[in-house]
Amino acid sequence: MSNIVSVKNLHKAYAGGFEALKSVDLDIREGEILALLGPNGAGKTTLISTICGITTATSGSISVGGNDTVADFRAARNLIGLVPQEINLEPFETVMNTVRFSRGLFGKPRDDAYLEKVLDQLSLGDKKDAKIMMLSGGMKRRVLIAKALSHEPRVLFLDEPTAGVDVELRKDMWEVVAGLKANGVTIILTTHYIEEAEAIADRVGVISKGEILVVQDKAEMMAQMGKKQLTIELSDPITDIPQALADYALERAQDGLSLIYTYDTRGERTGIRTLLNDLSEAGLKMVDLQTQQSSLEDIFVGMVREDA
What we know:
The chain is of the alpha/beta class. The protein has 10 helices and 14 strands.
């Protein structure tokens, strides 16, 4: 799969000396959904703004569809759609006129048939003649996406696309994003909702303090870096973990009715069989077992903590 966006050795520093981006290298594959995770101030929005030409890089290079964003700015920018975090729309204008105006800004000829298709994909077809002020918050966010798609970009940046949106609408937005990917649009989203990345992303990038810590296929990341927990439910509560089980680093539940064993999924042996044998020899009776895989949130929090 070819790269549609390529960022090389990107730096962004401000007059006071603060470095918002430090030697960022990032390749984004054509047709993928890449989720960019990071705490507040990590550099997510700065990176997107620099790729989109809103912010000027201190050094480094960026190309979009083979076009350098400095030497061939117009060609590169025409390939990009940007959905900002803030909702900033003219309240008294209609949905269709709002989207039509955005298309015109990119010098594209009028094509209402295409715009109606976009609105239909975003479940806004029946709202095309409605004024923006009459729409719900979720619909306004869809209008922002329609504006970003109005000039037929190949790359779509979504900056916190579901911020302030309720759970039901958030899931609807995930379906919208999946539909855009099916139509060949490359999507990069920043989000604070870890479950959002876990639900829809193909790859996950983690950024902290202006540096990319990792970019990896979501499934591979969880397989390689995730851990599993085995919860052992006991027939009778215990006040202390037997000394014979000390090597397993078990955690005792507050009620004493279960023990938690954490193991690395990458290890050749999990140690579970030996643990269960030693458990029996220690006189503990087991009534049930449950396993739980580390979530993407666990992995993300751990990585950012290590970088602190």
